[in-house]
Amino acid sequence: MQFVGKLAVADLTDVQEGACSKTHGRAIQPSDIPKLLVRCLSVPIALASIAAALLEGLLSFGFYSVAQLLKKVGPLRDTYQVLSRAYDRMLDRLGREVLRDPRDTPALRLMVSLTLTALPIFVMQIVLGKPRLLLVAAFYLALCGPKFQRAVRMFSTKHLEAHRPQGYFSEKYDKVFGRYAEFFLGYLYGDLPELGRTVHVRLHHKENGGPEDTVATSGYDRTNRLHFLCYLADNIWTTLGLVPYIYFRARGDVKNQRRMLWGMARYCIYFAAIFLYDWRIGIAYVLIPLLTMNFIMAITSWVQHAFCDPEHPEDFFINTVTVFDDVNFMNEGYHLCHHHRSALHWTEMPALLERIRDKMSESGSLVFRDLDFMELFIELTLLRRMEVLAEKLVPWEPMNHEQRLTLLEKRTKPAGAVTAGGFTGVPVTPIAPRQIR
């Protein structure tokens, strides 16, 4: 930590002034060496994160394909539906008993499912010692579910738990389960303690995706794949807790600084213990989930505040996107409503949207239909199909297709170089600028 402490936050986050901007032939100075070392380390980690996510993704989507085939078998489908309804009734009764708010039963279902699948697999592997390929595959499927749905729901469950001062569980069960999603199940996903309760709530919701936010994207071209790679490379330092720690330290926030230290220390102990026990288990059950989590966190931060106004990058009513899809687990797509009233229960978000729709219209907040955040990332950055996004955009006033494309082009341009230390206002020159067709 002494080495990291000597690095400014910008050393870990100002990729726009390095890999994604023009160089002017300046000779390397001694003070540039730490930044260069960080860059040399973070880019391979970004590539490894993509590989880890692809590995789990192939299993997850393969499982989804098999599940779709099995649904066509009438007796299997009927049996599953009967068991699922019985399971839901049991969880409804359990939720009324153990939760502070029974409306959070969807989160309870996710936590119970992981406790009955991923956790026993992990324990079994520790007992058996030598990694078993089938167990590893089953572990990844238990974490991700079909089409990454379980991983996404875990992300939402932990996210909303972070905003509850006392967590999900009632006082009678709180001492045992506490923040069960973040402080226990999160280890299985490579999700450090305090990234939710401290970083998300005390940092991200304070900065609201603006220039001072350590995960700000306004200085990048959000349609540029190479820019995303740069962003992903830097995101590992947030995933590991280092950038948030430096953020709190720079602002003299001792309480949250200590929380981050304690969270990083706990995860480091867990990481080291598994690797000392068996490095192969460490790679399969700890390192790969950690790299995958880095990828998921980067995608989420990349798109949720992707459409800022270059002239007002700090306005969260402008930069925060709202998406509607068929699943929308725990109303995660109402992201602007969540930033506007983060303490409001997720079931009340649709009503809040109706109350603030005039403000959203005035600000030019973007709303998309028939998309989730993963699909938004695919269309916006991977495929760069702005015409598809234009079709799915729900405008506040009549707009033709060309007007929608023009709006999307403006709202995804880099606003300027952004670091956790502040907005520099220096324009970013993308490596591969492109015209929206």
Would you give an account of this structure?
- Helix 3 crosses helix 7 and helix 13 (242-250) packs antiparallel against helix 14 (254-277).
- The chain is built from 21 helices and four strands.
- 43% of the residues are buried.
- It has 437 residues and is mostly helical.
- A hairpin with a 2-residue loop joins strand 3 (418-419) and strand 4.
- The strands form two sheets. Strands 1-2 form a two-stranded parallel sheet.
- The protein has one domain.
- The longest helix is centred in the N-terminal third of the chain and has 39 residues, at 33-71.
- It is globular.
List the helices and strands and how they pair.
Layout: H1 2-5, H2 9-13, H3 33-71, H4 74-98, H5 105-116, H6 118-128, H7 133-144, H8 149-162, H9 171-177, H10 180-189, H11 195-207, H12 225-239, H13 242-250, H14 254-277, H15 279-304, H16 316-319, E1 322-324, H17 335-340, H18 349-363, E2 367-369, H19 373-382, H20 386-392, H21 401-411, E3 418-419, E4 422-423
Parallel strand pairs: 1-2
Antiparallel strand pairs: 3-4
Helix pairs in contact: 3-7, 3-12, 3-15, 6-7, 8-10, 8-11, 11-14, 12-15, 13-14, 14-15, 15-19, 20-21
First and last CA, distance = 47 Å
Average pLDDT metric: 88
Rg calc: 22 Å
Low-confidence regions:
1-19, 21-25, 417-437
Number of domains: 1
Give the ordered list of helices and strands: HHHHHHHHHHHHHHHHEHHEHHHEE
- Number of H- or I-type helical stretches: 21
